[in-house]
């Protein structure tokens, strides 16, 4: 039995009136929660290594020749020659090692690393990552990783069944990398602070600059912040200020944040997220659902008794039913978020229907917000 479900949404935009958008209540947040320091960003590290000690779940050396080459090179560095010999061991796997170098990290501190299989290994559980150098985008080595791999998933296999939960070909080495080199730039050497908004917005950027300048006028007697655009706010360092203490005091200032009106729709999962500033002009909505049901009931036809030429055949039989559920025309208006959600719920449709209605309202020009489809 197969089902084909089609949604039909009729949306009529009526010039009856426009919903007046009331000012939304401002949300107050700390600067550290809505912006990040440009000098304090992470740096990505990458390396290639080997995981040993696997229980027969490693790479097949014939299928993954780079694993055998890496094994030969590692043993040769240790003074062991494998010339003319071929290994069939299944307890070793080639992996990529990745990590994030935190800002202001100093040599000797430790960071976590992620280990991911490159070959046909089926599991990294129980393995140990051997010494692997991690390099940055400039090709310099910034950390060295080594340690036991922690894998959260598992894989159980029998003759007639297999059970897999999570990912067994990827794991982590907690505190597995030691930082060997620090970043060339120093925080104290900066002449200003550049704050980058996580959600770019001109109103919020101007609010951050105003909050910093109010603080600066009371302490230094002059403004020090300027909003360059919707994402960056530049704070100049006063001559008598310590940059670390200045940042510590600025990041705890409270700012009223603002965001543009958006409706985010994920059609795959049926998720709908409506922002607080979304407004809908007055429209008339009629929603209907068309359900088509196709049923296949094949019939087996047998030949007559003692028939020499007759043979068994299958005769197809298909039954198709169509059902249309129509709804009344409903007036929908959303001067605020609560009224909009209540109006959508009163229509009595499921999330997939609401998604179609919102798309239709946007096409009619009555949705005063950005519609984001994922």
TrEMBL record:
InterPro entries: Flag_FlgI. Pfam families: FlgI. The keyword NADP does not apply. It is found in: Bacterial flagellum basal body. It comes from the Bacteria. The keyword Transmembrane helix does not apply. One of its GO terms (cellular component) is outer membrane-bounded periplasmic space. Residues 1-26 form the signal peptide. One of its GO terms (molecular function) is structural molecule activity. GO terms for biological process: bacterial-type flagellum-dependent cell motility. Keywords: Bacterial flagellum, Cell projection, Cilium, Flagellum, Periplasm, Signal. Assembles around the rod to form the L-ring and probably protects the motor/basal body from shearing forces during rotation. The basal body constitutes a major portion of the flagellar organelle and consists of four rings (L,P,S, and M) mounted on a central rod. Belongs to the FlgI family. This is Flagellar P-ring protein. The lineage of its organism: Bacteria, Pseudomonadati, Pseudomonadota, Alphaproteobacteria, Hyphomicrobiales. The gene is flgI.
